[in-house]
Amino acid sequence: MDQLRIELRFEGPFTNTPTAQCHMLYPPAPAFFGYPCPYADCDGHFDLGEAVKAAVADGSKASAGMLECRGSRARDHAWKQPCLLQLIYEITATCHEKT
Fold this sequence. Notes:
Distance between the termini: 15 Å
Order of helices and strands: EEEEHEEEE
Largest sheet: 4 strands, antiparallel
Shape: elongated
Strand content: 35-45%
Radius of gyration: 16 Å
Structural class: mainly beta
Number of strands: 8
Strand order of the largest sheet: 2-1-8-5
């Protein structure tokens, strides 16, 4: 594999939705596929490990889907409430054929 591109978009029930992110990984970069929820007051995270495995193993070298944050947020100084932020991801693995 020559390059791994991970695109993250966020959707949620609140008006202050985090901005999109794009991560590019190249060999021999260390690879971590766990991303914390972008809300500073949330204790959740997203694990894209299985999605990356699917993209690398798949003949199309791509994987896409949606995950929902299972973390909790403290809003308005109240007790913790479910985050419910949705992560829409697209993962593309690029491999150049050796001749």
